[in-house]
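Thread: quick sanity check before group meeting

JM: Hey all, I'm pulling together slides for Thursday and realized we never actually wrote out the predicted structure for the chain we discussed last week. Dropping the sequence here so it's in one place. If anyone has concerns about the input, flag it before I start.
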Amino acid sequence: MLHEKTRRITDEDIIKKSLSTEKFASLNIRLLSSDIRIENGDRFEVTYKGIKEEMPRVELIGDIMNIEQNSREEINVTYDLNHRYDLGVKVTIPREAQIDKLNFSSIEGDFKLRKLIVANMYIKSSNGDVDLEDSNIKSGEIYVLDGDFKADNTDLDNVAIQLDDGDAYMKRMHLTGGSINLIDGDCRIWDSKFNGKYFIRNSDGDNKVEGVMGDGYGYSLDTLDGTNKLFKETRQGHLELNTQFDNFITMKTMKGDNIVK
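JM (edit): ok, ran it. Output follows.
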């Protein structure tokens, strides 16, 4: 009979280590089971806080910083800590710098980006939330299999977002082109500005846009099983307004409501 290994983690098992202070232009990150936070700081640095077995390997190749967790023997881990720790990987980038390309993939863990400019970003998260704050993403794709997408005070230019099982919350955004597609979850965008055509598509969930900043927007709302509410007008099926406008928001859901107010 096989017995699963279980390890009890205490405060003495938590390590903090600076893994690199080398300058880089791009990031290539592959994590198995750690959270990551990438943010503005005083210098280029990669640090890790957690158990030794999950510490990632870091290597600079050209101008690309590679951060990778290697697979290890499967062990059940239980945490018995007396203090609260922000466990995981942390990457800081100087205020005057930007990231040329950011590739990130994760099996389990949350991703947070704060106060940064990224020219091109690709994110694939199997199980974890993606959170963007005070940032500017000039192009990219975001795919989340199981988790929420949150963004605040961030510019997204032609960024395609796909959520299979999770909700999307965006506020104080500047959205230029792009789209968000959800399979099972709600989408809410408020106090934001749209440039060009933006698409919100949903299979099972509500789409809600509130407090659009500025005038001159067109709208097209469609639902197969639900209600469309466009300001003071309510209708099932299809509802549209100002279809000739360049700044245009398309909202579709198979099962759920579309709401603009």
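AS: nice. DSSP finds no helices and 31 strands in the chain. The CA atoms of residues 200 and 224 lie 15 Å apart.
JM: adding both to the slides.
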